[in-house]
Amino acid sequence: MCYNPGIVSHLYLCTLEIVPLKVGAVYDELPSHLTLMSRFASALSPQEMTAGIRPVFTESDPVAMTFGPIERLGPKQVAAHMIDSQAELALHHRLHAALSSLKVTYQYPQFNGAGHRAHVSVREGVPFVDRQQYSSLAAYLIEVVDKKRVVRVKFELAGSGRVLASIYPQDVDPSVKAMDYSTFKTRPAGRAIVFSDDKVALIKVREHNYYMLPGGGLDGEDVRAGIAREILEELGAEIELEKEVGIIETFIDRWKNRQVDHCFTAQLIHANSQKALTTFEVEEGHELVWAANIDEAIGLVEAANPGQTDGKLVRARDLKFLQICKSAIMGQ
Asked: Is residue 2 part of a domain?
């Protein structure tokens, strides 16, 4: 159906997160984003619209994408990176079907369905290059009101995972001053609680006196594949991922990152490969340690006393993952 401004009372669009947006914020122009669904109109209130489309996002995994070359789009010839992402395209079609069932009307129907071309408009201060990979961890419902964009709802793209906690620097070090965390860039990451019989793999960070779960940042890849790659690099081991423990987000002042860690349990298959530690990991003194069991792993992480806020955040995050693993997954 075509858009008729005289009939409807709300005008919306949906975006995928490139730069985090703050719910309730009002923008003249949105920061860098990917338009998942161009403008659509409905008599449904923001609360009703949220209820109607939330199921589309509830089971959606983070959307991996690859940035392509810059093209000039539309009558204003806006510069935009073209995006290559089968996951984005599939999510667009699911949302399109859900919105059509809600009887919305589209202001620009030619840009939806078969006409949809994923792109991210070029914005100052948000540099992306051709073939760069990225994973979007959230979607937004935005309402257009008096030519301004009002962020109504944020949908976390966590798949079946549970968001267990949000950990801020002030939670582990009250002396740290609060910042505007809505401006932090989202960094998707993954961790694994790797078992070999009863033993549990930990990484000891010698330079800062703490232990952490193996894992690291995801390079625009599937969460499970990215975790397996990180474990191969850090432990020199192949694993089989099993149960999902959950998700924890931490806000790291040092890097201006909102890090979103997905954690799974895993079984060691074999450890015959050579490690491929980064220069940073070598300098930090990363060393593989096998705790005798889950209780000893919890004890080592809990007893550590890192001097830096970063290490305290890691300690709080991984202690939570291990405790949830023990209670909810292992039933101990």
From this structure: no
pLDDT tens, position by position, 53-110: 999 998 788 888 999 999 998 778 888 999 999 999 999 999 999 999 999 999 989 9
Q: What are 45's two structure tokens?
A: 């209130």
User: Which residues make beta-bridge pairs with 11?
Assistant: 41
Any domain includes 3: no
User: Do 175 and 149 reside in the same domain of the chain?
Assistant: no
Total domain count, the chain: 2
Give the model's pLDDT for residue 276: 83
- Rounded to 5 degrees, what are φ and ψ at 195? -105, 140
| Alpha carbon distance 57, 94 (integer Å) | 9
Q: Are 49 and 42 in contact (CB under 8 A)?
A: yes
* Domain CATH number, residue 123: 3.90.1140.10
pTM: 0.66
Report if residue 4 sits inside a domain.
no
Local structure of residue 183 (DSSP, 8 states)? G
Contact indicator for 12, 36 with CB cutoff of 8 Å: no
Choose among 59, 62, 38, 58: nearest CA to 50.
58
Structural domain for 271, as ranges: 163-329
